[in-house]
């Protein structure tokens, strides 16, 4: 099997790579009810040393930047309540936490969640958090540019491996909201 893009040595449908996925992601793939068959979720086995975006692109090719997305966990606070949410934006952009995220969550203040909170609440590893398998009650904010791509490279839940998923899948995940301008220029 070949990936829809990129040069990866080991490529398989995600249902055939369950042993390489963390439990919440494996469970989501096992019980998949998305807009495409589970076999359309592609797992590519990659070296965990290159899981972070910059080193991943260095090793696997900078041409993947426009086809990859980062999933980050944010915390919105209002009064004494904190809402955790995930944001999915193209890798070449940053999440507009203080604008779009804060307004969407109805929060007085929003920030990136601490790493221990993000990993502890998701059951995923830092550098591998993915929208597939997130806690179902969480809002999932998806930048429209991600949802519009034919295929998107995202984390697999662990630092080892990535998933390549049709962009439209993210709009159909539980509590997903597609937003224009969620991802803003990294230098802006």
Quick overview of this protein structure:
The protein has helices spanning 23-30, 53-60, 97-105, 115-122, 144-147, 168-171, and strands at 10-13, 42-45, 69-78, 81-90, 93-95, 109-112, 140-143, 152-155, 162-165, 176-179, 183-185. It is α+β, with helices and mostly antiparallel strands and 188 residues long. The strands form 3 sheets. Strands 6-3-4-7-10 form a 5-stranded mixed sheet. Strands 1-2-9-8 form a 4-stranded antiparallel sheet. The chain has a two-stranded antiparallel sheet with strand order 5-11.
Layout of strands and helices, then pairs:
Layout: E1 10-13, H1 23-30, E2 42-45, H2 53-60, E3 69-78, E4 81-90, E5 93-95, H3 97-105, E6 109-112, H4 115-122, E7 140-143, H5 144-147, E8 152-155, E9 162-165, H6 168-171, E10 176-179, E11 183-185
Parallel strand pairs: 4-7, 7-10
Antiparallel strand pairs: 1-2, 2-9, 3-4, 3-6, 5-11, 8-9
Describe the protein in words.
The chain has 6 helices and 11 strands. The chain has a single domain (10-183), classed as YbaK protein, CATH 3.90.960. Helix content is 22%, strand content 29%. The strands form 3 sheets. Strands 6-3-4-7-10 form a 5-stranded mixed β-sheet. It has 188 residues and is of the alpha+beta class. The protein has helices at residues 23-30, 53-60, 97-105, 115-122, 144-147, 168-171; strands at 10-13, 42-45, 69-78, 81-90, 93-95, 109-112, 140-143, 152-155, 162-165, 176-179, 183-185.
């Amino acid at each position: 099997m070949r990936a829809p893009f990129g040069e990866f040595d080991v490529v398989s449908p995600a249902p055939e790579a369950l042993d390489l996925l963390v439990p919440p992601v494996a469970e989501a793939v096992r019980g998949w009810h998305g807009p495409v068959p589970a076999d359309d979720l592609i797992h590519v086995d990659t070296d965990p040393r290159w899981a972070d975006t910059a080193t991943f692109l260095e090793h696997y090719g900078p041409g993947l930047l426009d086809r990859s997305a980062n999933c980050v966990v944010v915390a919105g606070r209002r009064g004494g309540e904190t809402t955790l949410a995930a944001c999915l934006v193209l890798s070449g952009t940053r999440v507009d936490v203080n604008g779009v995220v804060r307004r969407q969550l109805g929060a007085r203040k929003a920030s990136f969640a601490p790493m221990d909170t993000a990993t502890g609440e998701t059951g995923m590893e830092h550098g591998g958090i993915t929208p597939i398998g997130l806690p179902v009650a969480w809002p999932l904010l998806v930048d429209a540019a991600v949802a519009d791509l034919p295929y998107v490279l995202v984390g697999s839940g662990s630092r080892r491996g990535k998933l390549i998923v049709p962009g439209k899948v993210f709009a159909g995940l539980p509590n997903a909201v597609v937003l224009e301008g969620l991802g803003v220029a990294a230098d802006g």
